[in-house]
Amino acid sequence: MRRIPAFLLLLWPLVCSAQSDPVLEFTLAPREDFLNQPLSVDLTGVDYNPDEGTLVLHRMEGDSWTVLPAQVEGGITPRLWFVPGETITGGERVRYRVMKVPEIGYKPGMSARIDRHDITIRFGEQEVLRYRHAFIEAPEGTDPLNGRAGAYIHPLRSPAGAVLTAIQPDDHYHHYGIWNPWTHTIFEGREVDFWNLALGLGTVRHAGILSHYSGCLFAGFRAHHEHVDFTAPGADKVALNEVWDVHSWSLYLDGRQVWLVDFTFTLSCATDSLVELTAYRYGGGIGFRATEEWTNENSTVLTSEGLTRSEADASFARWCLVEGETAPGGRSGIVFMSHPANRAHPEPMRIWPENANGGRGDQYFEFCPIRHETWYLLPGQEYVLRYRALVFDGEMEADLIDRLWRNYAWPAMAER
């Protein structure tokens, strides 16, 4: 018997009593097996006002309809997000319908809460991650330039609660959990470095929370970041704007709870001057400094091309698994997935060698779209990078990861 999430039990009587006609019907017919991962359907043309009711999704199973959790995301093109309910076999056709009900009484399963330092995302009482929006001072006794005005994620936890990120480690004070500044950058003829903070050439700062949202399926936020040039004549100058759009999900895959964290990074020039992101082994993409508990003795790397840590640096991959031991006596990991629409996909990576940091072999991973080729950002245009982080406890086989990446890259499309 399939388990029904507790929050749906509060919704069930109302859904079953709804007698209105569907406002939308669609079919999913994936070419290959689609696992229980997020999907969305365009709500264009659907008569829906969130102040007048709620949309409820049903899946046809046999001769009856089963309710599924769904969440509306507003915007210029509103979308209804859902998970299919179970694996859809390639070639199978599954019918769905959307009903409008006047009200519901369940509480969001995923929440995003803001305090004076962080946005904290939780599933129920389980903490998923914290996004820092306040300034954090440099470690005591170090150069004050190593402080940072937010714009990073730490901690990121596994579903079991293990902390998987690190900030301000004593070997690299400018490392901040999950973050993505650019290194060798040319702006208005000046060389700027937004990564190595102690150089005093530039920094990245949080510039505002654009939105945050909670719901039955996902929670997240949109935040504005500024890449600031300290070398400009006169006052500091913003060279590059960036918007982070982060969606966090709690799902059951392969019989266990996992987090999915979807990142969309949108870059644009802040002035009429282009920005040159010079080819280098570090910069942008998505960077991850792992917990200091992970060394070359208790952690591993595996890429989509079957490469391990000793050979993966500077290679190209669709996904990369970084995993290691977590207390007490377990293992946890993160699979970083690159979207096929990204620049230089499959993307080159920076992965620290096994003898990094005096032989300890601390873990650092990055998708680095400028690793081998310079990127020119032109005024008046937007540039988008998309990544997914799959966070889990235990172990995960490469074949399953590859199926999950294909589902992320080419999701099942709704036929309306």
Q: Cα-atom Rg, whole angstroms?
A: 22 Å
Structural class, please? mainly beta
Poorly predicted ranges: 1-18
What is the number of beta strands? Answer: 31
Distance between the first and last residues' Cα: 30 Å
The helix fraction, in percent, is under 10%
Work out the strand percent.
35-45%
Question: What general outline do the C-alpha atoms trace?
Answer: globular
Number of separate domains: 2
Count up the helices: 3
Which architecture of the largest domain per CATH? Distorted Sandwich
Strand order of the largest sheet: 17-18-19-20-30-26-25-23
CATH class of the largest domain: Mainly Beta
Could you tell me the CATH topology label of the largest domain: Beta-galactosidase, Chain A, domain 5
- Largest sheet descriptor: 8 strands, antiparallel
Mean pLDDT: 93
Topology:
Blueprint: H1 6-17, E1 24-28, E2 39-42, E3 54-61, E4 64-68, E5 70-73, E6 79-82, E7 94-101, E8 110-114, E9 118-123, E10 126-132, E11 135-136, E12 148-149, E13 152-156, E14 178-179, E15 185-187, E16 190-192, E17 202-213, E18 218-229, E19 237-253, E20 256-269, E21 275-277, E22 286-289, E23 299-303, H2 309-312, E24 316-317, E25 319-326, E26 330-338, E27 347-351, E28 364-367, E29 375-377, E30 383-393, H3 398-409, E31 414-415
